[in-house]
Amino acid sequence: MKKSLILGAAAMAALVAVPQADAADVKIGGYYMMRAVSQDTTLTEDSTLDDTQGWFQRVQLDVDAKVSDKTSAHLHTRILGSSDTIDGANIGNAADANDALDVKRAWMETEVYGVTVKAGNMPLAINDKLLFKDDGGSYGTILLAKNFGGVTAVALNVRADEGTTTGANADTDDANIYGLSLVGKASNLSYQLTWAHLAIEEDYAAYKDSNNNWIALTVGADMGGMNVTGTGIYETGHSQDDETGLADTLTDGGFMGAVRVKGKTGFGGWNAYGFYAAESFNHPAETYTSGRVNQGFSKTWFQGGPGGTVLMESWATGDGGTSNKNNLQNMMGVGVGATVKAGSWTISPAVDYATVVEDAGVNSKSAYGGSLYLTTALDKGATFSLVGLYVKPTDDSSTVDYAAMQALQAEFKVKF
To answer: What is the 3-class SS of the chain, one letter each residue?
Structure first.
């Protein structure tokens, strides 16, 4: 339960700087979450790193200050970091022995001459979370938004990688994404059309002095009791002026498409997804990060939370280092899930299948799996879940023995 407080409290004054004690409405919320985990998330049968067992916890505290109808400030922190281990008695009583305070998001919002302005480290969810999606963290962004007769125009600058801020390379070693997005509704269709341009400076690592562009269109509609959302993204491919050159997989353009469908039934609800990412498609984040782009197609693709597992992504990016694929490159997949109410419990099964689009010499070319959640409410704001996750890769290698990955978990979550 979120509580509205007056900013006269000294602790809140330290967190959110507002000139007068009665000038803002401050809401404090968050959650505590703990998972007991027993899992094997490695692909090879003979691996000596098969098992993970432990208790993991997280505390997130969100402070949101509404100064006026147009101006607000936000601070979202993880007091125990992202996935602290609950230690034994011999460690003492230091709950923060593993991770320091983790500020996930901090941003402000206001209005300047009728234009909404947002600045700071904020969450972004653009084109059905396929072009930009945070995993509980944030993007460093300056965002401008203006409504024009039912259509909202959004301009943004995403600080993809800041590099150094002082010294000789302060202005030549960063990567920026500049974007323009139109969001609106026509008849019963909602849409978002986005252009994103990546500009990498001349002193930036391997991709120095290069550019890339993406055009994304998302359309959603309610049809016959179903909600259908489709997204298509076209990438033009990198151009580079530096003499070191780029790999062919980066210079080629590519396409990605995805469809999500959900509906309700007498026993609960259902959902399904399908996606296709060409071998030559490169997501914006793949260029300036390690290449992993978490997408919430299903719980096996990205579970989240303390001690969370990503079994499908572990398969898609980890078959011995011989693959250039992940779930947004050289990959296609489908999945279906359901939600069933059974007394005080909610039962949520799901199944997934994914395969490589083009054989690039990888050892495991497809995988199937699924998840099962059993969740019940213990009290107001408190839930308990039993979780099972499973992924079985195909074994197409003559030199590597592949085995199934699985996870069993029990979790408590308290929202406040």
So the answer is: CCEEEECCCHHHHHHCCCCCCCCCEEEEEEEEEEEEEEEECCCECCCCCCEEEEEEEEEEEEEEEECCCCCEEEEEEECCCCCEECCCHHHCCCCCCCCCCEEEEEEEEEEECCEEEEEEEECCEECCCCCEECCCCCEEEEEEEEEECCEEEEEEEEEEECCCCCCCCCCCCCEEEEEEEEEEEECCEEEEEEEEEEEECCCCCCCCCEEEEEEEEEEEEEECCEEEEEEEEEECCCEECCCCCCCHHHHCCEEEEEEEEEEEECCEEEEEEEEEECCCCCCHHHHHCCCCCCCCCCCCCCCCCCCCCCHHHHHHHCCCCCCCCECCECEEEEEEEEEEEECCEEEEEEEEEEEECCCCCCCCCEEEEEEEEEEEEEECCEEEEEEEEEEEECCCCCCCCECCEEEEEEEEEEEC
